[in-house]
């Protein structure tokens, strides 16, 4: 009998109902993985690995109190790697059935026969596979119906539209999905992840004598009850529009720059990207040869914690099956480690850090202050709330982005400014951090508050 993934009945749209149907999908994933690995061994592969995922959920958009769009999404994927004496064959397919998987395996084996051996390829050592699977509280299916989601989105938008300065809504969106993922390899390792994610957002338009302004707010979490109320989301979106209504300009020159938490996490992501094994072994990183060196002020440390309950980057194992671990990346400003997969670790002659597939929850540790206090200490400068453009060179560290935000003088915000360029060098910028805010944004796997840089170039 053919094993395959049947389509979920579109009349059953709550995540609780989806979770029940995904119990069969979970069994299917494990069965397919086992049969592919057995067949790979019979085909002569020295090693093999299989990964698959299945994501199901709903999303809708409300505009001016009316349902604009409603989508039911189901996405499945299967990948196979086989190794014949370090010659690797890879296939990736969207058909989660046993027949398709075995056909994919045959294709992967044929590819491997025509691939040059790579001395760094292959599975990570068996003893590094995860054995302890903690409950990280990532899976929280809820009984929310589409009607419930619709009312929540309407409530957020309705709250925002009560403000006179809000001219129209660009839409309120609600999203709820549940995902399954399975990774297995020929070491006998098999791991499953089950996660849920909910989000509510509202984007608004405000009117000034200089034109239209756009802003909004969102909330997200693993569990529906962890989201902000729709009234709080609508009110915050409205507040953010109102802050922009008082507009002005600022001088060009070198001034202190404060990155808001939403923008600061992007700033940290540039540093984290430069610390990834691929960038290091390709020698395409401004963090080359920096291990043991001071890259941040002494008061700033960076930790990775894959075990945060409900964390957006939490996991017991990486995409090599390697056990994840809590560790310190930067200790009192000194760089102590990179982010390495099994492959990049071999290229560098180091040990994997359990980061195949990505970085886990990042916590920026530092003494913090209220944003108002930081602005008072800096006196005059720019609070950046949005950046745009692609002006970041991860090789040299050169940084130049379009920006908008708020000009402050004598520690007080004066007005909104836009169409600016801010520039500097990332290595120097990170060493010039003078303060960290206590306004930590938890809507990401990078947990940071505002970041104040002593000086950057601002140009109109």
UniProtKB/TrEMBL annotation:
<dbReference type="Pfam" id="PF19290">
    <property type="entry name" value="PmbA_TldD_2nd"/>
</dbReference>
<dbReference type="InterPro" id="IPR047657">
    <property type="entry name" value="PmbA"/>
</dbReference>
<feature type="domain" description="Metalloprotease TldD/E C-terminal">
    <location>
        <begin position="252"/>
        <end position="459"/>
    </location>
</feature>
<comment type="similarity">
    <text>Belongs to the peptidase U62 family.</text>
</comment>
<dbReference type="InterPro" id="IPR036059">
    <property type="entry name" value="TldD/PmbA_sf"/>
</dbReference>
<dbReference type="InterPro" id="IPR002510">
    <property type="entry name" value="Metalloprtase-TldD/E_N"/>
</dbReference>
<dbReference type="GO" id="GO:0008237">
    <property type="term" value="F:metallopeptidase activity"/>
</dbReference>
<dbReference type="InterPro" id="IPR035068">
    <property type="entry name" value="TldD/PmbA_N"/>
</dbReference>
<feature type="domain" description="Metalloprotease TldD/E central">
    <location>
        <begin position="139"/>
        <end position="245"/>
    </location>
</feature>
<dbReference type="InterPro" id="IPR045570">
    <property type="entry name" value="Metalloprtase-TldD/E_cen_dom"/>
</dbReference>
<keyword id="KW-0378">Hydrolase</keyword>
<dbReference type="InterPro" id="IPR045569">
    <property type="entry name" value="Metalloprtase-TldD/E_C"/>
</dbReference>
<dbReference type="Pfam" id="PF01523">
    <property type="entry name" value="PmbA_TldD_1st"/>
</dbReference>
<protein>
    <submittedName>
        <fullName>Metalloprotease PmbA</fullName>
    </submittedName>
</protein>
<keyword id="KW-0482">Metalloprotease</keyword>
<dbReference type="Pfam" id="PF19289">
    <property type="entry name" value="PmbA_TldD_3rd"/>
</dbReference>
<keyword id="KW-0645">Protease</keyword>
<feature type="domain" description="Metalloprotease TldD/E N-terminal">
    <location>
        <begin position="53"/>
        <end position="112"/>
    </location>
</feature>
